[in-house]
Amino acid sequence: xxxxxxxxxxxxxxxxxxxxxxxxxxxxxxxxxxxxxxxxxxxxxxxxxxxxxxxxxxxxxxxxxxxxxxxxxxxxxxxxxxxxxxxxxxxxxxxxxxxxxxxxxxxxxxxxxxxxxxxxxxxxxxxxxxxxxxxxxxxxxxxxxxxxxxxxxxxxxxxxxxxxxxxxxxxxxxxxxxxxxxxxxx
Length: 186
Fold this sequence. Notes:
Blueprint lengths: L1 H11 L6 H8 L13 H14 L12 H17 L5 H6 L3 H17 L4 H23 L16 H8 L5 H16 L1
Helix pairs in contact: 1-3, 4-7, 4-9, 6-7, 7-9
């Protein structure tokens, strides 16, 4: 049922989702959906959970390089979100908190094993999570990374050249932002 909700949102956007639409897609009457979910919000929360669970597992830390490990995980999660770009706002609004807590607990254990001080672990994880969500939101809503400015006369020629170079797409900006942040706190 949640997967069908995701399919509707992927195809036509969140505004197209309704209980009647979902029921028709499933070949049932809308009131029967309440046998499984309390309300529309619960269905959307489960749809968000399905999307988050689509994130591929990433391998263990190699040679204590927890920074690359976290970046790889964030890239995988961002990719899973962008596979459902129209649903990214839905995931943000209905993020499965319990899944996030379990992931954070697991990641804290990994970071501790790599020598990251306990006082920094949750700060690092929450910051990476927020950067990942923010990057996915920007990409999903069509806000390009480092786009040419609308008032170029306000920038130096060097900045304009950098923006015009095409070197900074969304993926590179995301990875390099994470790397710079993690190296500064690592």
